Amino acid sequence: MSTTLVRTAAELAGVGRGGARAVVMTMGALHQGHAALVRAARDRVGAGGTVVVTVFVNPLQFGPGEDLDRYPRTLDADLALAGQAGASVVFAPSVDEVYPGGEPRVRIDAGPMGTGYEGASRPGHFDGMLTVVAKLLHLTAPDLAFFGEKDGQQLALIRRMVRDLNFPVEIVGVPTVREEDGLALSSRNRFLAAEDRRTALALSRALFAGRDAAPAGPEAVRRAADQVLAAAGLVPDYLAVIDPADFTGIEQDGFRGEAVLAVAAKVGTTRLIDNVRLQFG
């Protein structure tokens, strides 16, 4: 479908105001996982609604030594993929447009939910993520916002922010899209050498092995997943069974309800994350 590219908040305010409105927030380098988000958004708002895709590499999310400068910028390809998937508008602002006057002095604090797991490995990352998500929710004014389940802690934090701060938007999680061999789609996969990509398959295999062990409880889940990672020579930053409501670890058997098995590990020079849903009891 025809997709409009806008660069400023003023331009964005003047387009696509009919029907329900959905937003898909990205940092660009779009792949079929992002396309699944856009298609899900289009399905929800219908032909008469508006789907806005934001493309913004947010500097507040990158810590010292992280890959802000090498993060891929592929706007022309992003615009084509977004349009094919059903986007009405692509909003691709500059850093100065999002943060006029420099980095914001007032930011969203992720609180205790943002200090473990990804937050422990990337201090300040979730404060920056929530700050830009809050700004983009205000700028795009959606009825619905769609986020991938692969970034499980991010999704949990966004849902909590929206609830705690009374944002008038429904947050919709969309299941992780995987390659045929199980590798979760990620913009960072392009940095994997061929051998590293084969090694990276151990992440999804570990998660699936853990999921299969769920009837025996959280400890069996961790043990089954860890065995797969160890066999591949991977030492994870974390491998944890987590309560998605508050992103705290589930340490003891006897837990009942939905959980997430999450993993992060560096494969070669590229750090990857993944997770799967679990059901206990």
Describe this structure in words.
Helix 6 packs across helix 7 and helix 8 runs antiparallel to helix 9. The chain contains nine helices and ten strands. The mean pLDDT is 94. The strands form two sheets. A six-stranded parallel sheet has the order 1-4-3-2-5-6, sandwiched between helices. It folds into two domains: 171 residues, HUPs (Rossmann fold, 3-Layer(aba) Sandwich), CATH 3.40.50.620; 89 residues, Pantoate--beta-alanine Ligase, Chain: A,domain 2 (2-Layer Sandwich), CATH 3.30.1300. The chain starts with a strand and ends with a strand. With 281 residues, the protein is an alpha/beta fold. It is globular, with a radius of gyration of 19 Å. Helix content is 36%, strand content 21%.
Radius of gyration: 19 Å
The order of strands across the largest sheet is: 1-4-3-2-5-6
Cα distance spanning the termini: 45 Å
Topology as a string of helices (H) and strands (E): EHEHEHEHHHEHEHHEEEE
Range of strand content: 15-25%
Which structural class do the helices and strands define? alpha/beta
**What's the tally of helices?**
9
Average pLDDT, all residues: 94
CATH class of the largest domain: Alpha Beta
Name the CATH homologous superfamily of the largest domain. Answer: HUPs
